[in-house]
Amino acid sequence: MAVSLPLVFDAPKRGLPPRHLADLDAAGRRAAVAALGLPAFRADQLARQYYGRLTADPAQMTDLPAAVRDTVASELFPTLFTTVRHLSCDEGTTRKTLWRAHDGTLVESVLMRYPDRATLCISSQAGCGMACPFCATGQGGLDRNLSTAEIVDQVRAAAAAMRDGEVGGSPGRLSNVVFMGMGEPLANYNRVVAAVRRIIEPNPDGLGISARSVTVSTVGLAPAIRKLADEGLQVTLAVSLHTPDDELRDTLVPVNNRWSVREVLDAARYYADSTGRRVSIEYALIRDVNDQPWRADLLAKKLRGALGARVHVNLIPLNPTPGSEWDASPKPVEQEFVRRVLAGGVSCTVRDTRGQEIAAACGQLAAEEPGRS
Q1: N or C: which end of the chain has fewer CB within 10 A?
Q2: Any idea which positions bind [4Fe-4S] cluster (predicted)?
Q3: Distance (Å, rounded) from C-alpha 242 to C-alpha 135?
């Protein structure tokens, strides 16, 4: 049975925090500084503190006159998040953080350090409205969109943690950002695109992370994929497909009732054609649900037909949530699935799984927190 799903690219501002410096582009910063009666050069000065020195507290901005720090703090640096808790594993190289926003909503991010890179998985919404039944976040529903600054500040905080050696035991650099945390990024389209620009623009306008090191994930909001393609950004698009057939995908990813597998792959092809970037296909392998050999064959056939060589399948062993009926596929089944996709002419690898002992699936920490908003 088809499910009617309302889609809002830019939801009403319910519960959003007060305006923050990271919400503003260069022109907006200059206007905000002028409104405070400060000289124009303070706009770049504040941006260099936030994006360059990774400082979010004006009290620590020693090049700012002490007399204006309180005003700047209240008008441009409201507190976005407080840390509820950090959980670490993998010998200290993986850290999951549960944040509490100003209105009590809970948000998660995960910082993973590898020998050659450090990747941050961030949230774009508090909760998620896509209702995928195997996802902990989807089970909890949508609380609200995050502001641009709330998205960006997750990245700033992780960059500071890497600089200070808090993850992995020695100073390092945040190199990659993936929008694969809580929420559907393209359902919060305007703020996510603004956040991406802040993440990739060089100082003093942003954090200076390479666009090719930023991945935006979606369950398949086809019109928004096409819109993103026209933004001129060189970020990687990741499509959470999870099965190649509409019959099962209608259940696993309910938004498929609105945009079919074919429509999603057509939009992905438009993205690849427009940007020249290879598209990543995310596929959570679920025991006895979507792991059959014929589905691997069909997946390869459809992807090869739609995207040619400009596609890579990222196979994800399911990270089951407590009490869930869903479980990861056995290793032999996983290996056969990979073999068949490769035999079908499509690149395929299995994602390195981390953090299972710290409730790594998105939404688990928030769901377990007492008094969850």
Answers
A1: N
A2: 128, 132, 135
A3: 12
